[in-house]
Amino acid sequence: MAEDLKGCQVACKYSTSQLQKLCHHERFVCLDLGVKRREMHNFEVEYLCDYRRTFVRKRRMFNPTGELKETEFYLVKWKGYPDHMNTWEPRTHLRCVELLRHFWDDVYLELQKQKKTLVPDHFEPGLSSYLEQRARQRQSLQQWEAQINSVGGTTKRILVRNRVDLEGPPKNFTYINDYKVSEGISVTNVTVGCNCTNCLENPLEGCCPGVSGHGFAYSQGGQVKVKPGKPIYECNSRCRCGPDCPNRVVQRGIKHTLCIFRTENGRGWGVRTCERIKKHSFIMEYLGEIITTEEAERRGQVYDTQGATYLFDLDYVEDEYTVDAAHYGNISHFVNHSCKPNLQVYNVFIDNLDERLPRLAFFSNRGISAGEELTFDYNMHIDPIDVESTKMDSNFNMTGSPKKPIMKSSPKKRVRVECKCGTDICRGYLF
Ligand SMILES: C[S@@+](CC[C@H](N)C(=O)[O-])C[C@H]1O[C@@H](n2cnc3c(N)ncnc32)[C@H](O)[C@@H]1O
Ligand SMILES: [Zn+2]
Ligand SMILES: [Zn+2]
Ligand SMILES: [Zn+2]
Ligand SMILES: [Zn+2]
């Protein structure tokens, strides 16, 4: 019978591409179909979006009783292929350890929320659709994290984590690493710097802080030592000293690993430190668009209706300008308020000595443990400076007023925003 069929051709029910896919699926090299060993690895798992455990016949040459073994399968979304090309793959085909870890992180997190302890054989449609959304969210957060870190302004990495809900990167927000000065506002750059060979050891009068009538702000280790309310004058681009000068701290950027994370009690995003921070260390600047106070009033009314404000008054000498971090900002955009904060803000002058336009820098007001959330008081009060007690400054004129920047909410139609800082001295509202 078989001999009779010699030379006979039968049309294959499968198309070439289906056969190629089958080869890839079974990891079978077929040169006739153009499936080469090299190409086997072209399939990259983008993410895993479903799971099931079933009993399959053991693959043995001799298995007459049809012995079964339990096998785990994962639904794979392939990179570069549409969703309808997703395939179920046994665990043994997968080498994407990190994606598997993420997948199970999400599964356990969700089962925990549903108060379930056992992993089911098959996931309910609700769970698999949630896992897919989580996988996509993770991708967009990873892209955002990469974009943030490409902007600069930090020597360590900024991480982004959301273990709470499906919120992705904020819309209409651009990450920046310097002030964005609005049209019509001019910033004049400094024309003189110091000539010190060692700014910390040189007589203070000749160095930048002294010239402007202030004390040296930092200790040798870069900790701020002047009281809140006092301005900081750092060395600038005209100074003879190098980048390692102890009077260059804020300008060197963020030096701790920080994480933008989703808070669990409805405060949106927040910022925490991934490493221990010493007392009086520089943490970050408050950056945004510099706008006039009139413009801030207009924008404030809109922001108030949206229930969030990112306006920070620059009222060091007069109330002329405001920093608006709503649409342009850095990591400080995500720092929440606390009635018992661990950050303190200082006015800093570097390349621009215009007292109406200080830079705003956050320093830790105590030692902060790894994992702690970073917060500042949106309505902070600074005690008037005791000139006598800060000996170092007693030789100089106090040009800096003890006024401080304040997060601003529009005065018109002020609606009290409930504070959820959770501290024992919570005053109950933000503004
Ligand atoms: C500068 S933003 C902080 C980042 C913000 N959580 C986010 O997701 O973009 C200020 C807004 O965060 C929220 N927020 C900050 N601290 C809070 C607190 N202690 N209690 C309640 N909401 C807070 C309020 O909506 C506030 O208007
Ligand atoms: Zn100097
Ligand atoms: Zn210097
Ligand atoms: Zn200098
Ligand atoms: Zn509070």
UniProtKB/TrEMBL annotation:
It comes from the Eukaryota. This is Uncharacterized protein. It comes from Dallia pectoralis (Alaska blackfish).
